[in-house]
Structures are given as structure tokens and as C-alpha cells.
Amino acid sequence: ARLYIVWYRIVSGLSLNISKVCHLSISGVGIVSHVHVKMADEAVCVGPAPTSKSYLNMDAIMDAIRQTGAQAVHPGYGFLSENKEFARRLAAEGVTFIGPDTHAIQAMGDKIESKLIAKAARVNTIPGFDGVVKWRRADECRCVCLLGYPVMIKASAGGGGKGMRIAWSDDETREGFRFSSQEAASSFGDDRLLIEKYIDNPRHIEIQVLADKHGNALWLNERECSIQRRNQKVVEEAPSTFLDPATRRAMGEQAVSLAKAVQYSSAGTVEFLVDSKKNFYFLEMNTRLQVEHPITECITGLDLVQQMIRIAKGYKLQHKQEDIPINGWAIESRVYAEDPYKSFGLPSIGRLSQYEEPVRLSGVRVDSGIQEGSDISIYYDPMISKLVAYGASRADALKKMEAALDNYVIRGVTHNIPLLREIIVHPRFVAGDISTNFLPEVYPDGFKGHPLSAGDRRELLAAAAALHIAAQLRSQRFLGEQRSRRHWELCLELEKSVHMLAVSHSRGTYTVEVDGEKVEVSGEWNLASALLPLSINGSHKVLQCLTRSPAGDISLQYLGTTFKVRVLSVLAASLSKHMPEKLPEDTSSILRSPMPGTVVGVAVKPGDTVAVGQEICVIEAMKMQNSMTAAKTAKVKSVHCKTGETVGEGDLLVELE
Amino acid sequence: MIGCKRSRLLHNSRWYSISHLSVQDRIEEKRRAALVGGGQKRIDAQHKRGKLTARERIDLLMDPESFVEYDMFVEHRCADFGMEADHNKYPGDSVVTGQGRINGRLAYVFSQDFTVFGGSLSGAHAQKICKIMDQAMMVGAPVIGLNDSGGARIQEGVESLAGYADIFLRNVMASGVVPQISLIMGPCAGGAVYSPALTDFTFMVKDTSYLFITGPDVVKSVTNEDVTQEELGGARTHTAVSGVAHRAFENDVDALLNLRNFFNFLPLSNKDPAPVTECHDPSDRLVPGLDTLVPFESTKAYDMLDIIHGIVDERDFFEIMPNYAKNIVVGFARMNGRTVGIVGNQPKVASGCLDINSSVKGARFVRFCDAFNIPIITFVDVPGFLPGTAQEYGGIIRHGAKLLFAFAEATVPKITVITRKAYGGAYDVMSSKHLRGDVNYAWPSAEVAVMGAKGAVQIIFRGKENQAEAEAEYVETFANPFPAAVRGFVDDIIQPSTTRKRICRDLEVLASKKQTNPWKKHANIPL
Fold first, then answer.
1. Residue A415: how many CB atoms within 10 A of its CB?
2. Phi, psi of A550, rounded to the nearest 5 degrees
3. Closest residue by Cα to residue B350 from B396, B380, B385, B318
4. Residues of A designated catalytic
5. Sign (positive/negative) of CA torsion A163, A167, A173, A176?
6. C-alpha span between A592 and A626 (Å, rounded)
7. What is the pLDDT of residues B67-123, one digit of tens each?
8. What distance in Å separates the CA atoms of residue B343 and residue B330, rounded to the nearest whole number?
9. β-strands A561-569, A624-629: how paired?
10. Are A288 and A99 in contact (CB under 8 A)?
């Protein structure tokens, strides 16, 4: 018998992952919106790109299920995966929902209710105001009296950091309420909020649980998800460097007792905040598969999707708690289409003009739902893929992750590999000294890319010089003509400093003299390849050449970060000093959209006077609302955007006088 | 032009007593004088304007130590207005000429020297240019002009005008024989503009170069228009508005380095095949991104450059006129190392329709490729010619005919890929099978028809009640590649991702293509 399974193609790879599980006996039917590529055995289009018309359009999805005769639905993550109404409608049609039953979704989906249940199940919880807060002055006072700042405001129905804000003052509370309720309304269709004591400097550690329909439940160890930006996870690992076996067991047992308290079945995740003294507090329970589930699969050897399907079919758990091992170490990096130089990641869009995953490397798994040519649009989460590295030890896994990031080719959209590459080699991260404040603490002035050491600088310059010469030599190799030199003097500019280099060449090896030291660079010099595997002074390095202009401008991705190097002959460099400086545009009076998105509100009109930091307009991108503020006190000269309009990165929004 | 004091240049020598020196010393003396052109003060002034000197430009453009200079001893022959004075004579006069190598390949170059009489054109100056042009034609090598000249040498009168005409004649004679490239690196005004206009490609340097028939002062006195030099004839004007220049670069250094790169695409003469360089990009590389590029909705735009970049070697595409008539994209690229000319309708701009400017832009490019043995690859997504009074009054019939003419007469290998729409007469024009296209492909998304469904249904099914049903019938019948494929008007329907592979293979086969047009003195293209 063929069992049809329907899932959503969410932003990343789950659908592919499920295909792998299902390929033996189960045909997959993918539900896709217009913009998505067909990846399942069969795909049904449920509507155009905006999620409210496709993946959140329950009627269309129910139609698709009927049309294909699907017998079960795997809801993926996000969208309708934790929507109790969806689960109810499926049940009414006699279609199996691969996930917990409606009761558990309802109980755990509501943050207020879940907290009460957790308390009753003797799970540690965070002190807070238990109940829905409607924005009123009285509530504000009450919260603050009760808890004291800082407080955390979050959407009752939410997850994944959406509709979540931290407030340190009355003003911030007010603003936080406004944004959070709007975001909550647009993401979840439910604008109820709750408020609780914010635990400073915590770690975010979650326990994976698996429960069947027969009252059995297991905990599959923890995942450390402390590296976050704007409350969204960036790098996750399993296990955590922080937990001792006793704490792990205590957390696992509480998680299981919570699952049992709500008669949970299927895979679920109980999230905890852990303070520096290893006290842990229940945060929420996600009644779905998490984005970061592969790292648990790596260390336990269990296939969670397969387990979910088994459980949905009514089978008993195959394993006992003592069968669950911790084998090796797994790390997941979330590769996002976003610019890490702007508040650790503002969404970017574009078409993936070139895309190669580092899947050839051993111990590396990439879950993605995109391919070369895919459009990253403003309509979905900007996630490109989940990059998982698995090794015998943490050091081994980190090494594999480094190589994976260096070998990952993404062109056409700005991505966060520079940040990921820096995080995983940062001494604090390597030592396991992390918290959810890791990014703002380590980069208080924002992420600036990889800081080049003197040695790095030499390597990079040598590589750029060698590449430049390799390209020059090639452009002299016309069919039937051969002329070549063996020695060059070049002038390289990197980060505003100028270096004179002497390069000599023999048989694919370039000897580059940089700042008095000799660097040997050799490689295959395939100028068409996106990857540039080089041996620099005998050590293997993978660089990527992003652009190479005839005028000597080279952008090289080196240690994750993209550096711009200008390579000129000594003659061209000396003549360049006569070239006029082109004045850059004065940007303080111009407000441009830092990312593509939709204008959801414009607070000013021409003639208004705005103060520094005053909100001018709000751009919604990738379901996040971003407030655009004035850079100086001035009169508004002209407004170039309207509410509801779509804007691109760099589009002029408002001009000040 | 104005004379200048030059005693300061010749440090220890006494110019007036030159006859006392030995011949050897005089040669050295003259050479030294030629190398500093108009003198250090003028060189400094040139640098201050953000411009390089004539010789610095040549040094950057040519391979190191490859430049061989001609006519370093030529001096002007003007005897009026005190020009005959020794201090008004400069060895080499106001232009540096010679030949050298660019990435090892021969090129002739002249570089006008603004430091000598403002680069003005004397009879001697013109004669020097003519000499290298004659030789370039004889040996079959391109001519590159680096223009930086205030105009005619007024002191020489008609001799200067004769000089221009001599150059114009050679520009015309060399047209289609060797590639001619002009890089405007300073002023170029009056009659002088017609030399660049006759060459194959005119490039400009932003902010420091101008091309106009008459400057802002004359414009003001004749038409009473207030206009700056930059607005009247700057790089932006000519690359975006007039279409006189083919591309602009940031500054002298940028322009010359880019010119070196551009030169690599060109054959040396019309007897030379398109150059083939070492290629690292596999010729059978699949381009999976292309399978999803063309949107389902035929009204939705996409970027033709995405197709071009995906298909050509190493995404390296040298676009010609990127800011003018953007509804058509033309430029050079390589396929498996061999230079090709690319022509593509750009659905992103004005739906990729053909109008006056895009037709002329496309036609000139196609003719260049045909003249110099460069295979033409055409990507078609064209909804037709642009309707309207502006176009009709402007002569779209005459101008559209140029593109048709150019594609039809071209005998180089012609490969055409219909990516989506090929409607109406524009289908015929865009290197169709009927115009001797050698290999014509359709992507599965191709629709070859007289017009789009809406318009067609209104004519075929006039008065029919259910227009939607009629439209669906039309779409079913015509909005696909089959009508063209069953008639053999396209040779195959190919998966977009295989396009590169197919084209590379075809070019290999077509390399030995031989086709000639009937004997004629010359054709009569509808100018």
C-alpha cells in the first residue's frame, strides 16, 4: 500500500530530509507555493508566494490533501506545524497528523497555559506574570512592580524569537509591546502577549523528547543553542559543553515528566534557560520537529522523522532511556541569506547565481531546500540551509565545520558565513564559554569580519597576488601564442594599507615576497572554479574568489570573511595617485532601506521636523519589523515610500534637509 | 594654440646653439625633449586634472617594454603666427604613435598629448596617425586611439582640416578590416569627434572626457540653451542618452586596464578568426539554475543577464552600451575559450521590446561581429516592436530594418535560443532560421506566434462570447514551442540547463562554416 505523506516545503531542507526517510515505501507529496521548486515525488501548488496565501492557507492545503489522497501530513516546522486548528481539521478528514495530538499542541502552544502545566508537573519555571497582558498602563506598572527590569515580552502564540523583545525601561516596554503585538498578529494571527522576568546572561539549552501513544517517553539528550541573534538561533551543538551528567539527567527527567503530563506523543523539544550556576528554568515546549534536530540525530543515531512516522502510526518506542547514547559531537550552523555586518544579520534577497554545498566533505551534512537559480525572496525566512558537522570530538567537529564553511559556495545573495566562520573559531566559543549574549558581548560594536593578523595578511596578499598573476598569464595564452614572464612587482592595497610585493613563478607555484617574508603559494589555478584550494607555505587553505575585475580589484573570501584587494602593477599604482577621488554620497540626510522588505508604516511627511533617533518608518522583512530612525535632527524634505510598498535594499525612503 | 616656454626643460643644454652639438647628442637631446612633451609644468597640470600623460597612458595600455615608437622626430611645419620659432617646436609634436603588444598581441596606438599645444591636431600630427593606420591595415592589427585634444591647430588652418579628413578616410578604409577603438580621455570637440564616431568602439573616462560638435558657449549663442560640458557631452550623456559612446570607465587607470581586457576579445583583423584563449570552464557544464529562471507567468520579467552569465565562460561578459537602450543586451563573452558576440532581448526593461534605439544598438553590434568573424549567439524573448507615434514618427520601420538587415547579411556562425516570447516580425528579426540562423533552439517555455494570446483572440474570435475559453485554446495551440518545431523553424527544443553544452558543441562544428553573400560593391543598409 502506498502511503502518501504531505509536508510543507519550508525554507530549508526538511522536505528533502523526509524524502530520504520515505523513499523506500512511502511516496511523498510536497506542497509548494508558486516560487518553490518541485522536490517531492509529486508536488501540489497551493498558491502564490506570500505565506498567507500559500503555506498558511489552510483551505488550499486541505484541498491538496484531498486531491492527492494523502493519508498523513508531516507539517515540517513553522507555518501550521503547531496550529491546533489545522490538526483538528486533519482529524476531521481522517488524515493522520504526524505530530502530537491537538490537546498537546494547544496546551504547549499557549505560553501561559504551558507554564501552568509545567509548574504542576514540577518543572522549574521562570518567575513572571502568568496571564495575557493587554497593553494598559496598569499592566505595565504591575509587571514592573512584580518583576523589576529587565523584562521579556513575548507573543503568547509565538516561537522562534518572533514577537519577542527585551525591555529595560518603561519606554522600551511600550515600544516592545507595540512591535511584538504587530509581529505576533502578522506571524501567528494572535496578538496576545505575556511578560516575565528576563534572566540575564543565560544559556539556551533544550532537551529533545520522544514520546509514543502508549505513555512511553524518552529524552534524547540536549542541544546547546545559546549562540543567538535577536533571539534566533545561529549556531547549535549537541551535546552541551556546560552540562554535567547530573544536570543533564535532571533536565531530561523534567522534560519527560512534562511530556507525560500532556500525554505527548511524537518528537518534541523542551527548551530551558540555564544560568551560570546550572539552575535551569522551563521556557517553552515546541510540539514539532526543530530546525536543529539533525545534531541530535548525529549523536544519538536515531532518525527523528522516521520515529515520528512510526509513532503516528501507533507503534511503541523502540528504545529505552539507557539505549540513548552520546556519540561524538555535532554542530549546526544556520546559513542565512542575510548581511551579518548589519546587526548580526539583516535579510538580503537575490537569486542564487552560483550555489555549491560542501557535501563532498566527510562528516558534513547540508539540509537545504534550494538550488542554484533559486530566488531568495522577502516572503520567507531567509534561511539557506542547515550545515551540520559531525565528529568524534568537539575539536574534530569544529574543524570539519571550518572546512565546510570555507567550501560552501553561495553567490548572488549576501550570506552570514563570515559570522559563522568567526564564531566557531572564537576562543570563547572554542572554550565553551558562551551565553545567549555571546554575540553582543564579543562584538559590542557589531560584527566587522575576520580581523587579519600579520600572518593572515601575508597569506591573503600572497594569494591575491598569485591569483592576479595566474589570471594575467592565462590571458596571454592565446591559441598558438606563448609569451611569458617569470617575475613581477606588484602593489597591493588591502584595508587601506599598501604593500609592495615581488612575485616569481615556476610551474604553478608562486613565490611571493610580502613585507620581507617569502610566502609560497601553489594550486591548480582553475580560474573558472568558485573554490580556490591553495597550499600556502605548505598548509592547505580554501579561498573563494568572488570577483576579479580587469582593473585589478579582487574580492577574496578568506577565513569566512570577504576581503577586497586591489592588485596593480607598480606602474599602474604609481599613476593611480593622479586619479581624482570620487566623493561619496553624504548619507546622513538620506534614509535608505537597509534590506528588501515591505513598508508597513511611514511616520513622517514632508515638512515635519524629526529628532535624532526618531522613528521615520517601519520596514517589515522576512516577517520581522524594523524601525528606521533619523540619523540627525532635520526637516523632512521628501518621502519616497508608501505604506504597503515593496522596497529593495538601498532604495531611497526619506530625504532630510 | 598658445606657444610655451620650454627652456626649463632642457636643463644643461642651450637649445639655441643646438647646431654646435654632435649628431649623436642632438638625437639624445631630441629624444629627451620628446619624452617630456609640453614640459613638467604642463604634465603637472595634466595630473592635477586627474589625467595621465600620453606616454603614461601608453605604458599602462601596452605590455611592459613592448611599445615601439614611430616619428619621435616629426615636428609641425607651421610658419605663421610665430609658430616657426624653435621654442614652439616639440619633437614628436602633439601625439605619440607606435605599435606594441597587449597580452602579447600586436596593436597600433596613437595617444594625443594634451601638454603640447593642448593636443591640437596639426598636419604633422595627422600624418603620424595616418602612418600607423596604414601600417596597421597592411599587417592586420587593431588601431587604438587615445583621444585628448583641444581640436584643430588653428594656426595651421586648412592643413589641420586636411589632416582630419586624411584620418577620416583611413577610419573608413580600415572599417571592417581591423578593429578600431577610441578611448576618449579628455576633450574631443568639433570635427575631431567624427574620427571616434567612425571607429568600432568609443569608450570614455567619467568626469574628464567630453565629446561634442560645439561646446556650451556656442550652444548658448545659437540656441540659447544653458548647458554644462558634462551635460552636453560627458560620459553619462553619451553612454545613456545619445548612444555615441559604448561604455565609460572611472578614471584613466581603470579605463586603460579595462581596455586591455576588452582587447583580449577581439580578433586582430578580418582575416583572423575569433581569438581562443585557455579556458578553465568545462564546455559541457550544466547550468541548473536556468531550468527555473523563466517565470511561469509570461507577463513576469526576469533578467536576461542571468542567462548570459550562467552560460558563458566564467560568467565573464563584457557588455557594450550597458546603459543605453537597455531593452537589448549586447556584448562579448567566450564559449569554451572562443570569443562570441551575445545579443539578447532584456525582458526586465520595456518587456524586451524592440524600439528604434535598441534596433540600432543591436544592428551595429551584429555587423561588428560579422565583420570580424565573431560568432553571434542570440537569446530571444521579444514581445514585438514598440508601437506608438513616437516610434513611427521616429522611423522605427527604417531603424528596425537595420537590425533585420544586419542579422540577415551576417555569415558568421549564428546560434539562436528562444527563451520565451518570439512574437510577430520581431521573431523574424532576431536571428531566426529564416535569416540563415545556423542552429536555432527553443526552450520549453518558448512561444513563437504572431502575437500574444489576448490580442490574437480579439482578432480570430471577434464577437465570440467566451473570450477566456478562446484565449485558452490559443494558448494551447500557439503558446508553446511546437508550432515552430514541427516546421523545423527551430532545430530542437532543449532543456535550459543544457544550453551551454549545446552551444559549445555547435560552435565547434560551425568553426569551419563557409558562407558568402552574392558579389556586390556594397550592400545598401537602410541608414
1. 25
2. -60, -25
3. B385
4. 284
5. negative
6. 13
7. 999 999 999 998 888 888 888 889 999 999 999 999 999 999 999 999 999 999 999
8. 5
9. unpaired
10. yes
Backbone dihedral region for residue A569 (phi beyond 0: left; psi -120 to 50: alpha; all else: beta): beta
Contacts of B251 in chain A (CB under 8 A): 579-580
Contact A523, A535 (CB under 8 A): yes
Provide the Cα torsion A446, A447, A448, A451; round to 10°.
120
A230 CA to chain B: closest CA distance, Å? 33
Amino acid at residue number A100: P
User: H helices then E strands: how many in chain A?
Assistant: 16, 39
What sign has the CA pseudo-torsion B91, B92, B98, B100? positive
Ranges A370-379, A434-443, A628-637, B81-90, most confident: A434-443
How far is A100 from A88, CA to CA, in rounded Å? 11
Q: What is the pLDDT of residue B85?
A: 85
Cell numbers representing residue B85 in the block: 620659432
Q: Are A610 and A633 in contact (CB under 8 A)?
A: yes
Asked if residues B331 and B317 have their Cβ atoms less than 8 Å apart, the reply is: yes
| Residue B346 grid cell | 532584456
pLDDT given at position A33 = 42
Do the chains contact at B282 and A527, CB–CB below 8 Å? no
Positive or negative CA dihedral for A9, A13, A14, A19? Answer: positive
ipTM: 0.81
C-alpha cell read off for A638:
521628501
* Chain B residues within 8 A of A476 when measuring between CB atoms: 103-104
Contacting A residues, span 486-545, partner chain B, CB-CB under 8 Å: 526-529
Q: B385 and B391 in contact (C-beta within 8 Å)?
A: yes
pLDDT attached to residue B74: 95
Amino acid at A647: V
CB neighbour burial string for B480-491, b if at least 16 within 10 angstroms, e if fewer: bbebbbeeebbb
Instruction: With CA atoms as reference, report the closest residue to B503 among B278, B298, B281.
Output: B281
Cross-sheet strand order for the sheet of A646-647: A624-629, A615-621, A597-602, A646-647
- The torsion region of residue B154 among left (phi > 0), alpha (psi -120 to 50) and beta comes to alpha
Which parts of chain B have pLDDT scores under 50?
1-14, 16
Output phi, psi for A203, to 5 deg: -105, 150
Those residues with Cβ within 8 angstroms of residue B378's Cβ, 6 or more apart along the chain or in another chain: B342, B343, B344, B407, B414, B415, B416, B417, B430, B431, B437
The grid coordinates of residue A642 equal: 508608501
pLDDT at B351: 87
Q: Cβ contact (<8 Å) for B60 and A572?
A: yes
**Per-residue pLDDT tens for A429-485?**
999 999 988 999 999 999 999 999 999 999 999 999 999 999 988 888 775 555 567
Taking the CB of residue B350, how many other CB atoms lie within 10 A of it?
Answer: 18
Active site residue B176: no
Q: Which residue in chain A has the smallest CA separation from B263? A: A475
Q: Say how far apart CA A323 and CA A431 lie, in whole Å.
A: 29
Quick one: cell of B129? 596617425
Nearest chain B Cα distance for residue A593, angstroms: 22
* A218 in Cβ contact with A324 (< 8 Å): yes
SS3 label, residue B226 = coil
Whole-number CA gyration radius for chain A: 27
Nearest residue to B205 via CA among A218, A364, A582? A582
Looking at the DSSP bridge assignments, the partners of residue A376 are A350
For residue B26, give the nearest of B17, B37, B36 by alpha carbon. B17
Residue given cell 537569446 in the structure block: B379
The secondary structure of A219-240 as a DSSP string is EEEEEEEEEEETTEEEEEEES-
